Amino acid sequence: MITWATGFLDSTAGDWERTLAFWQGATATTLSAFRGPDAEFVTLVPSDGDAFLRAQRVRSGPGGVHLDLHVADIRAAADAAVGLGAVEVAASDHVVLTSPGGFAFCFVDAYPARRPAPATWPRAAGGTHASLLDQLAVDVPAAGWETERRFWSQLTGWPERTTAPGASLIPLHRPDGLPLRLLLQRLDEPAGPVRAHLDLACSDRGAETDRHEALGATVEAVREHWTVLRDPAGRRYCLTDRDPATGALA
Predict the structure, then answer these.
(1) How far does the chain reach from its first CA to its final CA, in angstroms?
(2) Is 161 left (phi over 0), alpha (psi -120 to 50) or beta?
(3) Alpha-carbon span 231 to 153, nearest angstrom
(4) Which of 13, 14, 122, 229 has a 20 to 30 Å separation from 153 between CA atoms?
């Protein structure tokens, strides 16, 4: 059983400082002590509740996002994942795997944790609005769509929420108390690697967009219920109209 989920910001050395500065500001967090042989890991600590966002400085390859799933028995969870189609990449005190379509995730130790409350921010016009990083969207090219849908629902044990036939956005029903929802998104591109991005729920998307732009983000597209942005390192993410407390779209 998955007891907690953590999003990881993977960053090259050249983008490390701006990644940390931006996401601290975006999520109202502070940095823990750095850890690892080369001080390459750090946790973004919320003022309320327990951490579910961390960062890793990678030696090579592009930056991006990966997912840590916290479980009581790491080896058993990894073996079960391989049986579902995952590929094991490395094992130590945690296990690194990829989904059938190539998205990286890890099984790590479970620990007691409490989901943080949304952060509140002042509006320029007065009053406040709220936001919370609360979702990891798995971006799936069309060729891998059915395989990844089955894999993530079976891996987590989280059923798909009811959606319209042919929907390209399918949220999984996360258990109460977990910090990150999982959303499966079918991309228009026919093939390619599966990857992921982070989403924030916000009570006033316009005000939250202004706040993120002031922190250095750039707007890429505005949709009916979400806005696509890039952080200062070029990492794509979204602001959504979902309720920051419940995660549901009004």
Answers:
(1) 30
(2) beta
(3) 29
(4) 229
Helix (H, G, I), strand (E, B) or coil at 170: strand
By three-state DSSP, how is residue 5 classified?
strand
The CB-side HSE value for 191 (13 A sphere, CA atoms) comes to 0
Q: What is residue 63's predicted lDDT score, i.e. its pLDDT?
A: 81
Question: Residue written as tokens 């399918």?
Answer: 170
Confidence of residue 59 (pLDDT cuts 50, 70, 90): confident
Q: Please tell me the distance from the alpha carbon of residue 229 to that of residue 209, in angstroms, as a whole number.
A: 9
Q: How many helices (H) and strands (E) does the chain have?
A: 4, 16
Helix, strand or coil for residue 206? helix
CA gap 12, 59 in Å, rounded: 7
d(C-alpha 170, C-alpha 110), whole Å: 26
pLDDT given for residue 200 in this prediction: 98
